Amino acid sequence: MSPTRREILRTVGSVTALATTSAVTGCNTFQNSNDVHTGPATVKAADVPVGGGTVIDGTNFVITQPTKGTFKGFVRVCPHAGCQVDKVHDGAILCPCHGSKFAITDGHVTQGPATSGLGKATVTQKGETLTISGS
Ligand code: FES
Predict the structure, then answer these.
(1) Is the domain 41-133 a CATH 3.30.470.20 member?
(2) Which residue, among 36, 73, 39, 79, has the nearest Cα to 53 in the 3D structure?
(3) Most C-beta atoms within 10 A of its C-beta, which of 8, 48, 124, 128?
(4) What is the pLDDT along the chain (135 residues), one digit of tens a residue?
């Protein structure tokens, strides 16, 4: 006996829901935010390339320098499913989980699947030292 259209749709829906749950769970496992420092962090201004940025390992932050002397701070949590962005390349902040990209200028989405930008963080400069903290 062939399955009815309703039975087929029900099965497809269940498989889709399972796949989505697995993908999100995988991201959350990857993130492991228990070891991430959310408090202020410091980095040398010279360590943040002009036209690029630096992911501050062990923290929840990324600092970019879109133009010489202008620093921007963002929270590393990808708004798509919670992975941590982990690279800055070709003017974009990259999420390793599903390929979202965010602009180094203001954190807006330049490539999905994320539909919103990165959260902003506050960057202050004292001499050659940048301090970044949650806003
Ligand atoms: S968590 Fe999916 S693209 Fe970042």
Answers:
(1) no
(2) 73
(3) 48
(4) 445 545 544 444 333 333 333 344 344 333 434 445 677 899 999 999 999 999 998 889 999 999 999 999 999 999 999 999 999 999 999 999 999 999 999 999 999 999 999 999 999 999 999 999 985
